[in-house]
Amino acid sequence: MALSGTAHDEQPGGGARFPILVYCYLVSALANCVGGAFLSRTIGHDRFIFLIAATLQFFLLYFTWRLFSLKSPLTSWPLFDSMVESSVLQLLDQVFSVALVVVLALMGTVGTSLASKHGPVPGIAAGFGFLSLLLLSGYPLQLAFRSSEWWSCVLERFPMQRAGLVLYTYIPATLTFAVIVFGATLLIRKVISPTFFGAAFLGLVLSILLSTVLSMEVHLPFRSTQKLIISCPSPDVDWLESISDALDFSAHARRV
Q: Each residue of 9-44: pLDDT tens digit?
């Protein structure tokens, strides 16, 4: 279920109220991934998996904040004007988006590691989770390398896109990821079986994916989009628009 009700855009592409629940979630989730990074040192031979998971969670939380909030805390610093702030944020976006893809690639090896130690079921589930998380890398890459003008264009066309991405995509995804990582600690300590972990992993990912996609179309129809590639402004090349339309989850959800 998304954290909705208080988050909305006051005008297309304009300022948005950042609900206190989202602030609380971001702070607590950040504390959780920092704590997980420190605790990974006590896990032993599997610590690499949990360190990578904590790093991935950090990058996802960063882009959760960036995609929703147009304002930056840098604006309150006297050394930063709007041009410097924009350059700093774009540099951070580019570095973090590339790092996000690299960490996701490393997470792809987690499935192999789990399969070798705990059997094929956890490995297959981890591979499916990796592919699901890979879908989230498209928006950070577009934000980083197409600049804030692209994002402003998107918000003019879809005024509820920020609320849709954060409340119906990134928050459910990061929360689900945290639950799965906690389940992995239970698997390593043999509190749960590999089959139970794999089945719960797959069930949770599929249920969250389906429910968030459908819920977003129910609550924010046509004011937001679930296109994985958003061409804004519309490209002159037809095949680029065809790819964008083919990766439009909103259109697929409306057929359900």
A: 444 443 445 578 888 899 999 998 888 877 777 666
Closest CA to 63 of 136, 160, 4, 159: 136
Q: What gap in Å lies between CA 235 and CA 55, rounded to an integer?
A: 35
For the stretch 59-111, pLDDT in tens is: 999 999 888 775 544 444 444 445 556 778 888 889 999 999 998 888 777 77
Residues 6+ apart with CB under 8 A from 254: 217, 221
Residue 35, number of CB atoms within 10 A of its CB: 11
Backbone angles phi, psi at 9, to 5 degrees: -85, 130
Tokens coding 37: 């990074």
pTM of structure? 0.81
State yes or no: cis peptide before 12, omega within 30 of 0. Answer: no
Q: Is-contact 217 253, C-beta < 8 A?
A: yes
- Rounded CA separation 175/170 (Å): 8
- Give which of 143, 134, 137, 174 is closest to 161, Cα–Cα: 143
